[in-house]
């Protein structure tokens, strides 16, 4: 292991989760809550305050040289994706299929923080990005997000088979495709690859601060001191897992803890027969768990490149505007560019 310092649409309001209004006068019991992000009631009602604004695809800085638009992937499940296509390149470009974070329970491909980051990534790395908006828990617990990831890839495969007039597909090198995601999105990318058969060829997988857990706490989970408004604390992590895992599961479920005892780690990880890039943040409570997965993958014979971002925490590349976060985000983008263009 090596460690280094297609009909276009505009986002419809129905595509992003909104706060539902409830007119009942009866008091309601909250069973799970992450302040400012999600509130789940005993009767099953779910509220998601819009703590992060959703933006339309055309809200981009002109100097990026990116065209962005949305396409519905599946009308039945309301899966859609936002595309980012560099304008200038005359060559066919790699395709990066990306899954956003949010603990499987919140987040959107239309969130402004992801829109800004992925537009910048597409411009600087010289790739087309397909940002998938998948179904959320607890209304759609796992494996719904994994199913949506597979469905999105099958849709891409169909676009490659049949000629379309879409801008993204006309510029896309379908033989050079990668899966990527951050936090819960990286977990989705990992588990989607585990489910794929050999009919879908991939150039690699990029896991940015992948969201995994376990019943036993790691050192960084127990002792890493987080700022008051950190993107991920141990309490919020536990709540996300309670809301997203199948009923009756604990945090040693394979979807949550791929290195848990009783799981044949080597045999499972041999399915990842493709290059892997892991991005770890030094101040992230998930740091130890991410490094443990890196080591397990390397021991199983996988080719793993691990990038450690110093002085930053979980999801810094999308949620922090500090100078050090911007510097580390640019470093991450440079490594992603090298990884997909090798």
Automatic annotation (TrEMBL):
State the SUPFAM superfamilies in the record: alpha/beta-Hydrolases (SSF53474)
* Active-site annotation: 183
Mind telling me which InterPro entries this protein's record contains?
AB_hydrolase_3 (IPR013094), AB_hydrolase_fold (IPR029058), Carboxylest/Gibb_receptor (IPR050466), Lipase_GDXG_put_SER_AS (IPR033140)
Q: Which family does it belong to?
A: Belongs to the 'GDXG' lipolytic enzyme family.
> Pfam families recorded for this chain?
Abhydrolase_3
The superkingdom of the source organism is Eukaryota
This chain belongs to the protein called: Carboxylesterase 6
Domain Alpha/beta hydrolase fold-3 stretches: 96-317
């Amino acid at each position: 292991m090596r460690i280094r310092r297609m009909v276009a649409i505009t986002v419809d309001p129905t595509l992003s989760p909104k706060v539902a209004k409830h007119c009942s006068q009866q008091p309601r019991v909250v069973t799970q809550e992450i302040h400012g992000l999600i509130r789940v009631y005993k009767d099953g009602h779910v509220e998601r305050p819009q703590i992060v604004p959703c933006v339309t695809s055309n809200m981009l800085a002109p100097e990026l040289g990116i065209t962005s638009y949305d396409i519905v992937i599946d009308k039945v499940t309301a899966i859609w994706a936002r595309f980012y296509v560099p304008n200038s390149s005359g060559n066919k470009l790699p395709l990066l299929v990306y899954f956003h974070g949010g603990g499987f329970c919140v987040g959107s491909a239309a969130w402004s923080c992801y829109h800004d980051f992925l537009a910048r990534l597409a411009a600087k790395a010289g790739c087309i990005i397909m940002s998938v908006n998948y179904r959320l828990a607890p209304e759609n617990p796992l494996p719904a997000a994994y199913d949506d990831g597979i469905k999105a890839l099958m849709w891409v495969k169909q676009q490659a088979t049949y000629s379309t007039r879409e801008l993204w597909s006309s510029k896309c090198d379908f033989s050079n495709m990668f899966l990527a995601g951050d936090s819960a999105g990286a977990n989705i990318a990992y588990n989607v690859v585990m489910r794929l058969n050999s009919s879908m060829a991939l150039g690699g997988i990029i896991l940015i601060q992948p969201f995994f857990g376990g019943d036993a706490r790691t050192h960084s989970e127990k002792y890493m001191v987080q700022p008051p408004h950190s993107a991920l604390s141990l309490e919020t992590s536990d709540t996300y897992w309670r809301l997203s895992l199948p009923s009756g599961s604990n945090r040693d479920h394979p979807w949550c803890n791929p290195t848990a005892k009783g799981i044949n780690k080597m045999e499972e990880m041999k399915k990842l027969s493709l290059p892997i890039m892991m991005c770890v943040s030094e101040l992230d409570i998930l740091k130890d768990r991410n490094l443990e997965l890196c080591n397990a993958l390397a021991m199983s014979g996988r080719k793993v490149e691990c990038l450690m971002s110093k002085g930053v925490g979980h999801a810094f590349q999308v949620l922090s505007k500090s100078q050090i976060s911007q510097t580390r985000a640019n470093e991450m983008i440079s490594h992603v560019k090298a990884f997909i263009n090798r």
